[in-house]
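Reviewers of the previous submission asked for a worked example of the structure-prediction workflow described in the proposal, so we include one complete record here. The input consisted solely of the amino acid sequence. No template or homolog information was supplied to the procedure at any stage.
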Amino acid sequence: MTRFLPYLLGRLLYGLAVLLGVTGFAFGIVHLSGDPLAALVPPGASPAQEEALRRGFGLDRPLPEQYGRFLGRALRGDFGESWRQRRPALEAVLDPLPATLALTALAVGFALVGGGALGLLAGTRPGGIADAVVRALALLGQALPGFWLGILLILVFAVRLRWLPSSGLDGPRSLVLPAIALAAAPAAAIARLLRASLIEAMGADHVRTARGKGLAPAAVLRDHVLRGAALPALAYVGLQVGFLLGGAVVVEAVFAYPGVGRLALGAVADRDLPVVQAVVVLLAALIVGVNILVDLLARWLDPRVGAAGAAGGV
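From that input alone, the workflow returned the following structure tokens.
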């Protein structure tokens, strides 16, 4: 436990540093893209009216001061008021957040189950027909853009077969098609990673020793192969949470899904700076938290992960 605590504290400090960098980047990039007030000034407004609006939103102050005020409020969970919706920006983001989290969680489940099953099938039978089919499917899954796959799924399962709804959020069935579109690329990568890890682990000395002792193939796979072989795929899943949350922006637009992705697209188009900042910081915090949990789980599966983190830093 005493050796585990420094590793945990190191990951937490690293996560805080990442969040600080993300807030600075999000704040700066929005301002560098143009005047945030441009979309708010009504046509024909006088310079005096424009200046009054600028003062009202605090945009007349120097950028470092604006960022300092933003960071201080963000630490209290206050991202200001949405310039379009006229309500707290955090509240505007939290309303559709459960829909996006449900979609992401289902996509992660599909990716783990589908990619894990395919990787296990190919890795335990390398060089066979099943291995060739899995590798072909994995390459196809990583090559297809999510938005194109989403449109294809709508045409087949919603328009032609009429098995599932094509858009909106009307019960659990509405999650299936967008979750599959999101999960395809991560599932393909997990299958390839797990296959490679299994093939490598199968040739390890301790696995050959277990086989020589007469252990059943299933017991060898469960007790001596899977635990270590799953680590690369597990680490990849942590990284892919960010990909899934980011990819949800496009997929939610394709399926007209009422999540944070659609809100973010609208906020960027409207230059609703408080909402954009709230989305970026909240999603970054979720991604950092998930990656810390994955790191801790990887350390539990293989204590050498924690030792390496303590020795090499974070």
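Confidence is low (pLDDT under 50) at residues 307-314. We consider this example representative of the routine output the project will generate in years two and three.
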